[in-house]
Design a protein that fits this description.
alpha+beta; 4-stranded antiparallel beta sheet; about 45% helix; about 30% strand; 3 helices; about 110 residues; elongated
């Protein structure tokens, strides 16, 4: 087996850089994404492997996002987040909140 190479893959949609580890393996190439170990691929060339890793990573991120979105919708419907809303309203009534625009320095407030 050849030495493991590290390649950075930038995902513009999620604005995140991921680390791909790739390695020549016999007559092909294998690779995986460090931050998402479930993303593993094998291809005949390095170029094809990198494209496949990028595509598989994107599909994995999309599936994770959809699962998260579904879970939060279920949590909202089941009332599992109600205590957070109640706590936020208590903080607001007690004056423990700041105007977001004053904190981030935005010049104009949207209505």
């Amino acid at each position: 087996m050849e030495k493991i190479q590290t390649v950075k893959i930038y995902d513009a949609e999620y604005e995140t850089t991921y680390t791909a580890h790739i390695q020549e393996n016999g007559d092909g190439w294998i690779g995986w994404i460090q931050e998402h170990p479930e993303v593993k691929c094998k291809e005949s060339t390095q170029a094809v492997l990198l494209k496949t890793l990028e595509k598989t990573l994107y599909e994995t991120l999309e599936a994770d996002w959809e699962a998260w979105d579904k879970q939060i919708e279920e949590d909202i419907k089941a009332g599992r987040l109600d205590h957070l809303a109640e706590r936020a309203l208590e903080d607001l009534r007690a004056g423990r909140c700041k105007d977001l625009f004053s904190v981030i320095g935005t010049e104009t407030k949207s209505s």
